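Possible regression after last week's pipeline update?

I re-ran a chain I had predicted before the update to compare outputs. Posting the input and the new output here so someone can diff against the archived version. Not blocking, just want to make sure nothing changed silently.
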Amino acid sequence: MAQLSKFGVPGGEMPVLMPKLGYRFRVKFLGFAGEVIPALGTLTSQVVSVGRPSLQTETTTIDVYNSKIKLAGKSTWQDINLVVRDDISNTVARVISAQMGRQMDHAGQSSATAGTNYKFGMVIQTLDGGNDTVQVLDTWSLAGCWLTSVNYNEMNYGTSDAVTISMTIAYDNADYHIGDMPESSLPGLLGDLGGGPALRALSAGDTATNPN
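New output (post-update):
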């Protein structure tokens, strides 16, 4: 087995490490549509794919004597895409519709007076592949989330694929954590809304997706 040490990049300290696998992940929602169990646990279990945060920073140029100086300007977190399966119980469609209604009542043509009335939090976790005992490798926490677009996609006689709903999500800030996210920081994802029912909703999602 000595030849196994020769794989990788010459001069490295050790052979190539095991990479994180793109299909071992979990998305949890905090205060999405103001729902509690079982809705948010169902939403977590029906996730197909999710993007990860991306940061774009503007460049500020200052003209000086014989040259220019470039400095970091304002930064913007780029929107992410989330795809979920449309389940036969209509639970996923119901909570998405409720979240859209919180942002804008299209029937009554009225909108929320403040962003804190409809924004939610998200937690995107990379998992180790365990089931009985789940180890969280890393966590992205997204605060101030809201839906910028919702696409219910198409029905098609020529395919056996599951019906999906695609969403684009904007958010105000994202933080990266090694391992799981501290419980004490969960209410912060909702800003002034605090813990309350929304925090209980995330805990309920934990129970639904990980009995341990």
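Follow-up from reviewer: compared with the archived run. The helical segments are 39-45, 91-103, 196-209. Marking as no regression found.
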